[in-house]
Amino acid sequence: MTSSSSSKKQAQDQPETSEPTLKSLKTKMTKSDEKKKLKDIEISVPIVYGNVAFWLGKKASEYQSHKWAVYVRGATNEDISVVVKKVVFQLHSSFNNPTRVIEEPPFEVSESGWGEFEIAMTLHFHSDVCDKPLSLYHHLKLYPEDESGPLTMKKPVVVESYDEIVFPDPSESFLARVQNHLALTFPRLPSGYNLPAPMQVDDTGKKKRGDTKDHSLGQWFTSFSEADELLQLAAARQQVQAHIAKLRRQISVLEGQNQTIKTGSDL
Amino acid sequence: MGGTDAKDILGLPKTPLSLTQEKKSRPQKESHRKPDGISREVYALTGGVAPLMPSIDVTQLKRRPPADEKVSWQWLPFTSSARKDDLQLYHWVRVVNNVPPTGDYNFAKYNKSVDILNYTDEEYENHLTDPVWTKEETDQFFEFCHNFDLRFVVIADRFPVSRTVEELKDRYYSVNRALLRARAQSPADVANHPLIKEPYDITRDRERKRALSMVLSQSRHQEKKDAEILAEAKRITEMRLAARRAEEPVVSANENAGLDKADGVVPGSSVSPSSNSQLPATAVAPSTLTMADYASTLASLRMLHVYLRTYGLEQMVQAASSAVGLRTIKRVEQTLQDLGVNLKPKVPTKTVCDEHLELRKEILTLLNLQKQLQYKESEGSSHREGSFAAMPDTPKDRVFASDPFSFGAERPIKKEQKRKGPGRQADTPSPAHKRPRKMKASDL
C-alpha cells in the first residue's frame, strides 16, 4: 500500500527533520491557511497504555523481584509518533533518574524493581498538533490479582487501559500531514473541502520503525474491541426504551382515570 | 410601643446594641428601665433603647429650675456673627436674674463655608492659563464655587457658559493642583497631598458615570442575560484554572491525589491562557438545568485543544447529572450495573462513549417517568378515597415502589403483558413485585 508506506515515511521523521517539513509547508501555504481550524472536526488517536511485568523467579532479589515495562502504544499497534513527539515517564523517586524522556517510538520504559506505584506519562505533541502536553496515569502492577496463586516466570502480569486522545480543533497543517495515517481516525471532511497534498519527505536516513506490531512483548498485548461493549450498550438502551414506553402508557392511562374521577367529584 | 414589654414577655435580652453595653453604668440603667425625666411613651418613641449619643441630657428634663433664680422672658435685639452687615433682629430671650445671656447668636456656628483657594492675577498668568478657559470665566467660576460651596451641580446649572459637571471639576482640581505646586516650597512637600497623589481624571469620571447610568437603566431581561454570561465565563475560567494548576506538579505521583481535590473548586477571577493538562477528575461547578450544559461542556472541552476521551465522557456525564441530586445519580449507576453495563466503558471509542451517554440520559428519563407515575397513582387514589392517606411514602432507595396503590393501577398492565407474550423478557419482572434487580443482560 503506497499510501501507508509514504505516510510511514512521514511518521518516522525525527523531530528535527519534521521542522523543515513544517517550514516548507509554511512557505507553500498562506498565513491564513496555517491558522485556520475547522469546526466540528476532530482527530482521535486510539492508544493503549499500561505495563507488562515478569517475575524473575530464582533470579529475583529483594530489591529486584520483577522486570517490568511501562509504555504507551497505538491501540492497533500503529506508529503514534506521527502525533506524539516525546513521552516523559515519571517514575518513583527511588529510581535512578526518575524522569525518563523517550523521544522515539516505541514509547516505553523498562526497569526492574519490587514495588508498585503510580507512573505519570506526559505526552508531548508535535508543534503543529498541539502546544499543551497531555498526562496519563497508570498504576504499575507487578503481582497478579489472585494473591494466593503461585508466581510464575512464564506468564507476565499485564494491565492495559484503552483510551483515545481527542484533538477537537485540528489545524489544517496537522490534517494535511496525517491524512491516511493508520494510527488515528481521520474525520470526514465537509464536501468540497480540499486539503493540500501531504509533503513528500525525502527519507535519506533509514529510520527505525515506530509501530509496535512486532514488539517483543506483542504477544501479551490486549486486543481491545468496541464490539462487545457496543452490543451491551445497544441491548441496555433497548430495554430502557421499552420500559420508558411502557411507563408513558401507564401515565396516560392514569391521567385519563384521574380526569374522569375529578369531573365526577365535581358534580 | 411596648418594645421592652414584648421583649420582657418573650424573655429576650433587651439590649441588642453591644455598644451600649460597653459603657458602664448609665447605659445599663437606661436599657433596663425607662429613664426618669421623660414619660414611658416618649421614651419608647426612640425605640425603647437609649440612643447611642443621647442628644438630650435626660437627667435635666424634669429638673425644675432652682428656686433662687428669677426667670423672665424679654424681647431683645441681637446680632449674628454669621452676617456681614449690622442688621439687628429681635427675638425672645430667657433672662435670668435680669442678666441677659451673652455670646454669639446660637445658630451662627452653622454658618460654615468651603475654603477656596484664591489666586492672584500674576499666579494666573504663570500657572493657570488654559486653552479652553478664559480668565474671566475662571474668575467667575471660582466666585461661584465660593458662593455655592463647591456644589458643582448647582454651579453647572447656573454657569452662563454651558459646561458639564466633569469639565468644571476638572478645571477646579487642576487649578488647585497647579496652585499647590506653585506655592509649595519643594515638590516633596505637596507630594502627599491627595490632589497631587491621585489627580482627577476627567475621562475616567465620564466613563464611570456612563457605566453607572447604563447599569441603572438595564432592563431586567438584560440583567438576567448578563448574569448568565458571567456565570458561564466563571465556570470556564474555573475549569481552566484548575487544569492549569494541576499541570505544574504533574511529575510527582504523590501530589496528584491531593491536588485533584484541592483544585476542585477554585474561583478564577481572570481568564488564564488555554491550558490542557488532563486530570482524571476535575470538579466543575454546575449551573443551569438545560441543554446549555452540554453545549458549554463541549465548548470547554474544545478549549482544551487536547483531552482524553474518558475525561470528555466524565465531563459530559457530570453535565448530565448536574441538575439532579446524589440519590438519583446513585440510582442511575445502580441501573447501569443491573443492565450489565460498565460504569466507565472499557473500550471508550467515540461511538461507545456516545452510546453510553445516551443510555445514561435515557435512564434519567426513565427515573423521572417512574416518579411521575408514582405521583399520578397517589393522586388518583387520593381522589378515589377522598383522603390524603395516599401520600407516596416509598423508600427512596428502591427503584420501584412497593406500596399497595400500584397494584390497583397494575391490572390493566398485566393484561397488556399477557397480550405481548413470553418473548418480551423486558417486562417479565412482573408487576407483582417490581424489584430493583429487574433487568439483566442475561434476560435477553
TrEMBL record, chain A:
Keywords: Coiled coil, Nucleus, Transcription, Transcription regulation. Residues 1-34 are annotated as: Disordered. Residues 37-181 form the YEATS domain. Residues 230-257 form a coiled coil. It is found in: Nucleus. This is Transcription initiation factor TFIID subunit 14b isoform X1. The lineage of its organism: Eukaryota, Viridiplantae, Streptophyta, Embryophyta, Tracheophyta. The gene is LOC104760347.
From TrEMBL, chain B:
The keyword Transcription applies. The keyword Nucleus applies. Residues 21-38, 377-386 have a biased composition (Basic and acidic residues). It is found in: Nucleus. It comes from the Eukaryota. Keywords: Chromatin regulator, Nucleus, Transcription, Transcription regulation. Residues 432-444 have a biased composition (Basic residues). Residues 264-275 have a biased composition (Low complexity). Its main location: nucleus. Residues 1-38, 259-280, 377-444 are annotated as: Disordered. Residues 129-178 form the Myb-like domain. This is SWR1-complex protein 4. The gene is LOC104793709.
